[in-house]
Amino acid sequence: SPGNPTGRVLALEDIEIILEAATGSVVVVDEAYIDFAPGGGAPDSKASAASLFRSGKYPNLIVMQTLSKAWGLAGARLGMAFMPEPMIDVFAKVKAPFNVSALTEDVVLRSLARPDLVDARVTTILAERERVAAALKALHPKILAVHASEANFLLFRVPGAKALCEALARESGVVVRDRGSMLHCEDCVRVTVGTEAENDRFLQALSKAL
């Protein structure tokens, strides 16, 4: 949450319904893209399931986040999991020893010391997301729908999505994802929001290919 490829945040009320119905199971909420949602991944965020820990009601909840997306540290391969203390004790017993290298620790600590850089990056991506969404909507009726997103990507519906993805890669070197095989995503394409120049290149290639 936000989900891939829809980009929509799952309402906390819905997560609570799942938690209360699955008291004999562990419920894991993947929040890899949460930094792009309203409120981000902060403990008091209205988007993040991490805020549910404050009630102390859900001993079966695990919330996972990553530094690979908004923080730009995919190469560090480091994420985090938030959970009640009894589950932390179990995970500590089974995790690999020395599973985070000293180099990774150094890079991550340097990044965590500059949250302002992440905030600026997210602000830029959100502005570009709205610009790209508006440009896609302007291509109607060739593009049938552009779905709202709370992540760093957009999902849009276009006839012949698979052929379009192949044409963009072959003719322009632009890679987008055909998501037509996923439930309720027939003829849907997912595009990641990049830099202004990358987004311009995508939009130009798309206009040419349609």
From TrEMBL:
A single MF term (Gene Ontology): histidinol-phosphate transaminase activity
Family: Belongs to the class-II pyridoxal-phosphate-dependent aminotransferase family.
Catalytic activity, EC: 2.6.1.9
Pathway: Amino-acid biosynthesis; L-histidine biosynthesis; L-histidine from 5-phospho-alpha-D-ribose 1-diphosphate: step 7/9
Keyword Transferase: yes
Domain Aminotransferase class I/classII large: 1-206
Protein name: histidinol-phosphate transaminase
Enzyme class of the recorded protein, top EC level: transferase
Keywords in alphabetical order: Aminotransferase, Pyridoxal phosphate, Transferase
Cofactor: pyridoxal 5'-phosphate
Domain of life: Eukaryota
Recorded catalytic activity of this chain's protein: L-histidinol phosphate + 2-oxoglutarate = 3-(imidazol-4-yl)-2-oxopropyl phosphate + L-glutamate
Pfam families (UniProt xref): Aminotran_1_2 (PF00155)
